[in-house]
Amino acid sequence: MLYFKFLKMHFKKLLQYRLSFFLSLLSQTIVSLVALASMYFLFDRFKVVAGWSFSQVAISYAVVYFCFSFTECFGRGFDRFAKLIQSGGLDSFYIRPRSIFHQTLCSEIEFSKMGRVVVALAVLIYACAIQPFTWGIDKVAVLIGMLLCGIVIFFSLFMLGASMCIFTIEGLEVVNVFTDGGRELCQYPLNVYPEGLAKIFTYIIPFASFNYLPMMYLFDMPGATVWGHALAPLYGMLIIIPAYFIFRWSLTKYKSTGT
User: Fold this and answer.
1) pLDDT tens by residue, 188-201
2) 47 neighbors 41 (Cβ within 8 angstroms)
3) Is residue 35 packed enough to be buried (19+ CB in 10 Å), middle (13-18) or exposed (0-12)?
4) pLDDT tens, 79-133?
5) What is the mean pLDDT of residues 146-158?
6) Enclosing H/E stretch for 48
7) pLDDT at 152 exceeding the cut of 90
8) CA atoms of 173 and 35, how far apart (whole Å)
9) CB crowding 167-187: b at 16 or more within 10 Å, else e
10) Residue 93 contacts residue 100 (beta carbons within 8 Å)
């Protein structure tokens, strides 16, 4: 596939500056470990937060960091869409025999974020291993659904942010409230936050669909059901539909910056 040729090309580009690449990889790994350490020290002091133990919250941490880092690595083109507009690079996309979506997806891939992905995956494996319950097919499926849902939601937010850049030219920091902010928010199950905030990130931006709701099913909490909790990741992934069509619509309003 053409996409994998782009992956190979981006990786070869990084290897031209091996030291810079490995230092970036190391720094991203350290950032993830520091965030995990801060969570560990919190639970070492308080033991339980809003009914959740460290081993339980470790799954939430690992899932959100894996999803965000994976999306940031392979969906970076949408996250930096404003630069394409400002430089005039987006103009060239219109004369190429590929969709704008495909070219944007392939325009930038940041392999240095793989350090975070590896750390998150290692933490997830450890967190799953220390859980008191027995993993069955249903719970493994829910966990996989959480990972897929998180990737889709963050990718959708990147697309919505790119759509806004069509009209603003500059990237808006408000988008980072839901991307970078969402990553920090979802380190913990959403019920630890005030009810109003939890509702916003359940019904408007469906972070709860790969965080709090399916975790209730994983840990057999009272009131957890298959339809309302185990299948929540499927509902959350539906955000990709309006995000994609909004992105397509915004492209019809694009006017060159004249660069």
Assistant:
1) 888 888 888 888 88
2) no
3) middle
4) 888 888 888 888 888 888 888 998 888 888 877 777 788 888 888 898 888 888 8
5) 94
6) strand 48-49
7) yes
8) 22
9) eeeebeeebeebbeebbebbb
10) yes
Amino acid identity of residue 67, one-letter, is: C
CA–chain centroid gap for 137, Å, is: 25
Burial label, 91 (beta-carbon count in 10 A; 0-12, 13-18, 19+): middle
SS in 3 state form for 101-143? Answer: HHHHHHHCCCHHHHHHHHHHHHHHHHHHHCCCCCCCHHHHHHH
Other C-beta atoms lying within 10 Å of the C-beta of residue 165 = 23
Beta carbons of 147 and 63 less than 8 angstroms apart: yes
- Could you tell me what percentage of the chain is helix, strand and coil, using 3-state DSSP and rounding each to the nearest 5? 75, 0, 20
Please give the Cα distance from 19 to 40 (Å, whole number): 31
Q: Stretch 10-37: mean pLDDT, rounded?
A: 75
